[in-house]
Amino acid sequence: MELKQELEKYKNIVEKELDKILPKYNTPQKRIFEAMRYSIFAGGKRLRPILTLKTCELVGGNYRDAINFALSLEMIHTYSLIHDDLPSMDNDDYRRGKLTNHKVFGEGIAVLAGDGLLNLAFETMIKDIINDNDKSERKIKALKIIAESSGVFGMIGGQVVDIISEGKNIDESTLLYIHEKKTSALIEASILAGAIIGGASVDELKYLNTYAKAIGLGYQIRDDILDKIGDSEKLGKKVGSDDENNKTTYLTFYEIEEAVKKTEQLCKDAIKALSCFDEEKVKFFKELAKYLVYREN
Description:
With 297 residues, this protein is mostly helical. It has helices spanning 3-21, 30-40, 47-58, 67-84, 101-105, 107-130, 136-150, 155-164, 172-198, 202-229, 232-235, 241-244, 250-253, 256-272, 283-294, and strands spanning 94-95, 98-99. It has one domain: Farnesyl Diphosphate Synthase (Orthogonal Bundle), CATH 1.10.600. The longest helix is centred in the C-terminal third of the chain and has 28 residues, at 202-229. The radius of gyration is 18 Å and the shape is globular.
């Protein structure tokens, strides 16, 4: 199986469905939809929604059953990026090679665009649950995981600790908490939500959770590495911002070579966690784990 072709196939599915759920409204508040669309269609990899759809299929489900949850996860992820780029947060001018939302629409609209995406995500999932009596119980469980993973005990909690740690000497356990909550939590939710909607067993959820934690942490450590040695053109943003902002990263504690070895070990851990599944069915997930270790953007 060609990983890039499979990623492109499901990315196209996600793009088409996002366009339907976020049309170009001609209403008094149309500016907010323009801002929301600007960031949601800024060229993301769609990793989280793809994980949701593929995991649903892995455990025997139909990806169509999970599509609205996949779209919602992308909206939540995008809202977090809009807010992350704000002057009061990471103060970034570029994201994926384009001006950040607040640079185009102003800070007020950017804040509201993030809020709008977050709220629309939950509107979308709740509507889906109401319209699906057969799988409503599974979807409520998936909704709970997504809500917790994106809230104060998940992504927002990690962002808070990240902000209050700026300019301070923090220990490695605090850094890992930030990474696990700020980045990994939503990746884990993407995998578990898809698996739950698809009807995964307790054991399957356990193994997929191990896989998700491994690739989630590996993804963030790779981000730390790329901020140090990455290509700004490939990344679509300036490199070296962590050093400029005096932020503690994985490379604060380890040399680049050690960080690379850590991501490789996390890749092996992720692949090992898939051993309970049919070999043919998990090819995508194994190849994805390897791709995330060596990605350049």
